[in-house]
Amino acid sequence: MIYSRIAGTGSYLPPRVMTNDDFAKRLDTSDAWIRERTGIVQRHIADEAQCSSDLALEASRAALQASGTPAQDVDLIVVATSTPDYIFPSTACLLQAKLGVRGCAAFDVQAVCSGFVYALATADTFLKSGQYRKALVVGAEVFSRILDWDDRATCVLFGDGAGAVVLAADSKPGIHASVLHADGSQVGLLSVPGNVCKGQIVGSPFLQMNGQGVFKFAVKVLDEVGRETVSRAGMSMEEVDWLIPHQANVRILDATARKLGIAPEKLVSTVDHHGNTSAASVPLALDEFVRSGKIRPGHRVLMEGVGGGFTWGASLATM
Ligand code: ACO
């Protein structure tokens, strides 16, 4: 039996930091309101010259180094992003070129904030089938580009960043189980309802959200899919060492852990210092806890995503 295992992690946050007080200087909001409702204290904003592939490159280099994998050994690149550099080619192809390699399969996955979990499950399936041996799985976003900076209800929530893992074929799991779901009828909860047509933007280029609707939906499905994934792995919730839900806001994280019956000290929460980075949030949080020595080899980690679509999913992995 072939399994896939996370062999190394990496992440990148652009250097420019924007605090809640920076928003309060130009919008009718406050540090207290943002902290209390979201737990977010600051977020990182990419330089105008930086695209998702640039952030992905930094995170990928760190993950490749951590796993001792030369870039030319990678035979599959999957990038999860909703803020690609171009309409085409894919950000994965642009990343491949920036890594200085060619020939391996490369494509993007578009599942918004569930993107990393979708990409991980996709790469895991390829590795388990024996088709590939080493995959680079990345979540990279520049959500700052699709925000209406005058809309206080949305622009304070998000940030830019990237996270990556190297997934390697192994005789032991690794990834025990992944579960993915979607419900396209929930498009009205969260979207960027626009496109480019004949040189013009048709619709809106800005993120639109029903905040309370998203909150309720997210907590419900993160609970359900967490249970489904642990059950499919043939394990119990007590065997989970760490829960990494999509880092949307602290209240969603706390409510999810509570519903799943996972103790607060097992909950990975990094959203305070980078905001919601969409597809990058789970691998960013994973990398931070791996590098700080909290998540160690042998630990079981339940990673969960939820986002626009609506999409949601989870993966349970032994590190
Ligand atoms: N500063 C000050 N006041 C604000 C701000 C702000 N940044 N944003 C909204 N308000 C105001 C509203 O205008 C409203 O004012 P009103 O009563 O005069 O109309 C008031 O605050 C309450 O607004 P609500 O939307 O009811 O506030 P709520 O308590 O629901 O908090 C929030 C809003 C934080 C967005 C919450 O609904 C939430 O966390 N939702 C989840 C959304 C999320 O995480 N989205 C991320 C993308 S989806 C994903 O990643 C899965």
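^ acetyl coenzyme *A complex. The longest strand covers residues 160-170. The chain has two domains: 3-171, 176-318.
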